[in-house]
Amino acid sequence: MQPTDFLGWNAVFLAIALFIILCIFLGVRIVPQSEKHVVERFGRLKSVLGPGINFVVPFLDRIAHKVSVLERQLPNASQDAITADNVLVKVETSVFYRVTEPEKTVYRIRDIDAAIATTVAGIVRSEIGKLELDQVQSNRASLIERVREQVAAMVDDWGVEVTRAEILDVNLDEATRAAMLQQLN
Predict the structure, then answer these.
(1) pLDDT, tens digit, 9 for 90 and up, residues 46-68
(2) Which residue pairs, CB below 8 angstroms and at least 24 apart, start in 169-176?
């Protein structure tokens, strides 16, 4: 046996060992507690990896999306609404949600924050339009509950759970406020 033959076989074994180590390194995925990872194989949904140690097929599977499952808050939004007695009010809302099914959130909707904000705005306008100004001010808790239930039903297809929907403030426009003060006097 020649020394060059020995060196050649060592190089082959070394290459095979490095390839096996690389496959193990690429096949083991550790997912943090606050995330879920969406795995695709050849561009198609394969699975969703939960927290902990997970195994994927190296070179075939790839982590396409890393989705946080922590509760999120949308920025406070203000929208105008008209009550049943034709009073214009400005309503400030806040929404908290969390992703429960990341595959739906990733593949069914592009911008989840904007979609939830638009849905909440429409539902708040609709619910306030059914009530008179006095009822909006006095029955805020029941109004919030109806809004939360309707929003939760609407966003279920997106793999999202609405944990809280709040109406923070209901303000009157200046003309209505002045008219109410004048009538009070």
Answers:
(1) 999 999 999 999 999 999 999 99
(2) 169/91, 169/92, 170/89, 170/90, 170/91, 170/92, 170/136, 170/137, 170/140, 171/89, 171/90, 171/91, 171/92, 172/87, 172/88, 172/89, 172/90, 172/133, 173/88, 173/89, 173/90, 176/87, 176/88
